[in-house]
């Protein structure tokens, strides 16, 4: 009987050893599997981070491109509005010397009836021309009595004056014009010191 017990004990010990080995193998396999899963997770996490970075960069590029496109559309619209607003500028710039000549001719004093009738005809043409230019937005820049403003006035003379404040326009030597809000030609003026 002792031998049978011994044999059972040996078999029990052997089964326990095999069970422990199987547990150890299972634990090792589980550790290997966990390590493999962790490695795979870290690789996937790295890929996810790379992809998230790429997505963020692409979103930034998209936002910049949208902003650039919006700016382009705004600039184009402003350019088109300015072109429409100032469409007559080049024609007006060419007509201003003719208006100056009309002003000089109309300032001449005449005595004969023929010259007076000719002068009346010139005044009518002058009025038609200036009315048409006013309809396009041309305005005369008034200067006498105003403070000197280099945006609207071109000082060609400075004189000392006790009657006027310093930097006040005393006399207009040549008319200045602006088209809507853009100065076409500044007024030539004499300024007090």
Automatic annotation (TrEMBL):
Residues 1-32 are annotated as: Disordered. CDD domains: GrpE (cd00446). Belongs to the GrpE family. The gene is grpE. It comes from Anaerobacillus isosaccharinicus. This is Protein GrpE. Participates actively in the response to hyperosmotic and heat shock by preventing the aggregation of stress-denatured proteins, in association with DnaK and GrpE. It is the nucleotide exchange factor for DnaK and may function as a thermosensor. Unfolded proteins bind initially to DnaJ; upon interaction with the DnaJ-bound protein, DnaK hydrolyzes its bound ATP, resulting in the formation of a stable complex. GrpE releases ADP from DnaK; ATP binding to DnaK triggers the release of the substrate protein, thus completing the reaction cycle. Transmembrane segments: none annotated. GO terms for biological process: protein folding.
């Amino acid at each position: 009987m002792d031998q049978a017990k011994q044999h059972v004990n040996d078999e029990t010990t052997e089964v326990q050893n095999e069970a422990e080995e199987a547990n150890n193998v299972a634990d090792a396999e589980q550790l290997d599997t966990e390590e493999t899963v962790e490695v795979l997770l870290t690789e996937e996490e790295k890929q996810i981070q790379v992809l998230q970075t790429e997505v963020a960069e692409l979103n930034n590029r998209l936002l910049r491109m949208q902003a650039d496109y919006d700016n382009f559309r705004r600039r184009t619209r402003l350019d088109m509005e300015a072109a429409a607003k100032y469409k007559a500028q080049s024609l007006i710039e060419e007509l201003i010397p003719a208006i100056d000549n009309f002003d000089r001719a109309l300032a001449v004093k005449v005595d004969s009836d023929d010259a007076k009738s000719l002068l009346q005809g010139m005044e009518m043409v002058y009025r038609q021309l200036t009315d048409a230019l006013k309809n396009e937005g041309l305005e005369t820049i008034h200067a006498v009595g105003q403070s000197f403003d280099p945006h609207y006035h071109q000082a060609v003379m400075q004189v000392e004056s006790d009657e006027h404040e310093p930097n006040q326009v005393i006399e207009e030597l040549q008319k200045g014009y602006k088209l809507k809000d853009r100065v076409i030609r500044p007024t030539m003026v004499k300024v007090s010191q």
